[in-house]
Amino acid sequence: MSAKSYTVKCESTSPCEGQKPGTSGLRKHVTVFQSWRYTANFVQSILSAIDGATREGCTLLLGGDGRFYMKTAVQIIIQIAAANGIGKLVIGQNGILSTPAMSCLIRKRQAAGGIILTASHNPGGPDGDFGIKFNISNGGPAPANVTDAIYELTKTISTIKHCPDLNVDVTSLGTQQFDIEGRQFTIEVVDSVEDYLTLMQEIFDFEALRKLLSGSLKVVVNSMHGVVGPYAKRIVCQELGAPAESCVNCDPKEDFGGHHPDPNLTYAADLVTLMKKGIHSLGAAFDGDGDRNMILGKNGFFVTPSDLIAVIAANAKCIPYFKKTGVKGLARSMPTSGALDRVAKADGLEFFEVPTGWKFFGNLMDADRLSLCGEESFGTGSDHIREKDGLWAVLAWLSIMAARQLSVEEILMDHWTKYGRNFFTRYDYENVDSEPAQQMMANLRSLVDADKVATFIGREFAEGDKTYKVAKADDFEYTDPIDSSVSKKQGIRIIFEDGSRIIFRLSGTGSSGATIRMYIDSYESDKSKYSLDAQVVLRPLVKIALGISQLQELTGRQEPTVIT
Ligand code: VG1
Ligand code: CO
């Protein structure tokens, strides 16, 4: 069969405002991306940022979480990739690839990178958000030097090269060849789940998990109409034998059924309600692109993401992958609670505290110094790929339950008995006006400013019968141990003498206004207090944090949008 021929068209363009990637890719309201020029400018800039020698004839991955506008974006990207010398695009069937599956495929195919079409946990649909994220050849999110280079290109772009007549069927599996002005361009449509499933089979003991899930233990996996649905159905039901009703909301929808595909206690309230009935031993939910997870035990027992990764680390021996590779080191994002630190200390493991965003873990993993890491924002993962991985976290927990024959709550109680408990909470104030949010951060920054911090250190804050004395305060700064790159202004930290912490930062994933995140972490080694409600334990610190930041006065917000 001779390949169909297409010509390249050079379209003149000019820069679009607002193309600076945030914590994880470029996210904007769908209507912004619906302007062809906006999307095409950014895609052209991603490809132009790949150096010429690497780009020519290379393989790239393409896929996303199925949200509204993804199908159109897939065709735009195909047209631009074909015209820019890309050799091959490997695309998930119907464009579907979860973020972890994308990371897995980039690595398996030794691709130059991948383009992920998602705004992750942001709502979708015609009134929701869309997003484009670029992952590099290690399978992980592009680090700042790459996203900075892309951003610079968006500011000077003048031409988009594309093949406007090229339209490709991505619904059927298989390979298609095209002739682009004498060059060969290949599209391979792959099963969205297959390679990821194989990887999971290499990591976990599927036999043991099958035994657990085909017995009397009931689980419920809620994909929130995001991309995990097909993965969960195939792995949890088909491969591991859980009954069909174990997977709910597993058809990916363009608008996530009108919901916020964010697995937390507020947006996954239906899972919490179901778990409170006491029928299921484990409940899980994921975000739109499948990299986040929330895990609940029987009767709705909530596992904070900070504890969730600490428990996996402490029980790594229950997972065949870590029996083989050993655990090289542990890491968490700065606002994540100190629970993982205690496991690292007890096990004598190297430990890293990085800024918010998964991209900061990649270098450490590539250097073989990091095996397990997590973020308080429901992100959990390991060096099996270079993204956080929602379904992997669930299989990890099931592996621990199978090996230890304990319930979720018993596993936690056992963990706290050994290490003590870090109580943690996060308050999100979504869609606050930018100006007061910036003002609040500026005020806090001046408090911890190197020149002035001395007067703040030693100050005491009393609330009820508790008094906290400031031991350290700064705007978090991180020097990457591998490439020495420095990331500044990563969040205001106020650390008290007993180790309790108050942290403030602004979200970098929103598409409008500002989202303030306030994080509180406090350690407790008194056994009689382990079962207390975190909100009760942390109330004094919350009040102190609100007092120091003047958050309510400045923003006019009395209550947060989401409490975790
Ligand atoms: C949030 C989380 C961060 C996470 C990021 C991407 O960022 O806090 O921990 O890595 O989302 O997650 P921010 O800047 O809004 O706080 V995902 O699943 O939305 O790609
Ligand atoms: Co996500």
From TrEMBL:
Enzyme Commission (EC) number: 5.4.2.2
Record domain Alpha-D-phosphohexomutase alpha/beta/alpha: where: 19-158, 195-300, 307-419
Primary localisation category: cytoplasm
Record carries keyword Magnesium: yes
Enzyme kind, highest EC tier: isomerase
CC terms in the record's Gene Ontology section: cytosol
Alphabetically ordered keywords of this record: Cytoplasm, Isomerase, Magnesium, Metal-binding, Phosphoprotein
One Gene Ontology biological process: carbohydrate metabolic process
Catalytic reactions of this protein: alpha-D-glucose 1-phosphate = alpha-D-glucose 6-phosphate
Family, as annotated: Belongs to the phosphohexose mutase family.
Name this protein carries in UniProt: phosphoglucomutase (alpha-D-glucose-1,6-bisphosphate-dependent)
Organism from which the protein derives: Patiria miniata (Bat star)
Lineage, broadest ranks: Eukaryota, Metazoa, Echinodermata, Eleutherozoa, Asterozoa
